Amino acid sequence: MAAPLVLVVLVAVTVRAALYRSSLAAFIAERVEVASPLNAWKRVVEGLALLDLGVSPYSGAIFHETPLIIYLFHFLIEYAELVFMITDVLTAVALYLAIQDYNKAVFKKQKLLIELDKYAPDVAELIRTPMEMHYIPLKVALFYLLNPYTVMSCVAKSTCAINNTVIAFFILATIKGSAFLSAVFLALATYQSLYPITLFAPALLYLLQRQFIPIKPKSKSFWLYTMQYAALYLCSLVVIICLSFFLLNSWDFIPSVYGFILSVPDLTPNIGLFWYFFAEMFEHFSLFFVCVFQINVFFYTIPLAVKLKEHPVFFMFVQLAIISIFKSYPTVGDVALYMAFLPVWSHLYRFLRNIFILSCVLIVCSLLFPVLWHLWIYAGSANSNFYYAITLTFNIGQILLISDYFYAFLRREYYLTHGLHLTRQDGTEAMLVLKPLHFRASAAAHPMNVTHRKGIHWALLVAYGTENHY
After folding, report:
1. pTM of this structure
2. Which residues touch 268 (CB under 8 Å, ≥6 apart)?
């Protein structure tokens, strides 16, 4: 397996080196889909110029990267292209090793559940084999290194590539079972872009599983391990922030980086949902709606943690997708990171309902971004509504893609325990659907892993007939 990985790396590096030397490099670096006000290379260069003049890079409204990034490139500015190529390769290798270990753990768990007769007798075709899992780590590395989104981020020298590397090492440390390194890399990822704090929950759940600690609020061992991991994370974050203060001798970076991420003052168009909405928003309403928009990234963490507590890696994948969709300044580099995980869930393809249509939507939107931008900014024959429409379509496509994978994952888990051939009460074949439920004490449904409590819940149900409404 090492030889194919080396070949993929060589091809990826060659493509990037060729693009760096082409006239396309300057064009890609200016694309708003690739570089945002947070991670654009020209802003890093501006910050470095201010630092060389003895002026704080945070004294203006241009530079919004972290102190560690600016000091990294203060010493490596001459080798910037090489640094970005190395970060992409490191990310791919980290994901390769992480998925390799994860597949081993999945196969062991599957073998144990088969021995304990936890699976239905007619689900042999759903059981994953070592042969089909063998090439998945290589596909993950391939999906990351040769994804056009990743290539463009590297060529544009967007610091999103460095954020992806930190997150990849966090995932590797978590799957390897190293609580210390996992906490350190998660703290570093949070320090870089804030939103990865939501990855704390899936990482904790995975580490608890590796330690065979029951995920029960009444368990003392559960709370003890949680407090230990939280303490490691918080201590690492405090150390990194204090190191940044000692480098700059100022706390100016906190409002310039984290205040900028949360308050969204720069409404430069991007592939996110914020810029158009707040450009049209009355000033006195903006604070409320900023809070509403920002809470989206964090809102889904708890319900997902409850529903996917037995599957923390899939939870991590969904959370990465949520971050890339709902963060304030997203770029295609964020999308590339979670898309690299799609081969891991190749066994779900038979349950996906709209994968072809959604793939076409994302590809067409990606091609239309520069077209509509040109029509708006240069030709003057369109306006911001056209560009935001394609942005909205792109994000809806991502949301539907993740929802499709989520539904497929739940369907497969349900079939594994209940069997592939479900029947209605009259003996005819039943269909499994995902729909919202309004539960009462006498709920007459058969949901999977949901609480019988008043309120709306999403669950998998066996449809017993069209006359039954849940």
Report:
1. 0.90
2. 32, 36, 37, 275
Burial of 233 (0-12, 13-18, 19+ CB in 10 A): buried
* Alpha carbons 416 and 407: distance in angstroms, whole number: 14
DSSP state of 430: P
Q: Which residues pair with 434 in a beta bridge?
A: 460
Note the pLDDT of residue 434.
65
Q: What are phi and psi of 435, to 5 degrees?
A: -150, 160
Q: How far apart are CA 122 and CA 417, in angstroms?
A: 10
Q: Distance (Å, rounded) from C-alpha 369 to C-alpha 360? A: 14
| 429 DSSP β-pair partners | 423
Beta bridge partners of 431: 463
Angle between helices 80-115 and 148-155 (to 10 degrees): 150
Burial of 89 (C-beta count, 10 Å sphere; 0-12/13-18/19+): buried
Q: Using CA atoms, how far apart are residues 18 and 20, in angstroms rounded to an integer? A: 5
List Cβ neighbours of 291 (8 Å cut-off, separation of 6 or more). none
Q: What is the DSSP string of 367-416?
A: HHHHHHHIIIIII-SS-HHHHHHHHHHHHHHHHHHHHHHHHHHHHHHHHH
Q: Which residues contact 193 (CB under 8 A, 6 or more apart)?
A: 38, 163, 261, 327
Q: Note the pLDDT of residue 3.
A: 85
Instruction: Give the side-chain half-sphere CA count within 13 A for 88.
Output: 36
The answer to whether the beta carbons of residues 187 and 203 sit under 8 Å apart is no
Q: Please state the φ and ψ torsions of residue 437, each to the nearest 5 degrees.
A: -120, 140
What pLDDT is stored for residue 136 in this prediction? 94
| Model pLDDT, residue 426 | 67
> Is the backbone of residue 264 left (phi > 0), alpha (psi -120 to 50) or beta?
left
Q: Which residues of the chain have pLDDT under 70?
A: 1, 426-427, 429-430, 434-470
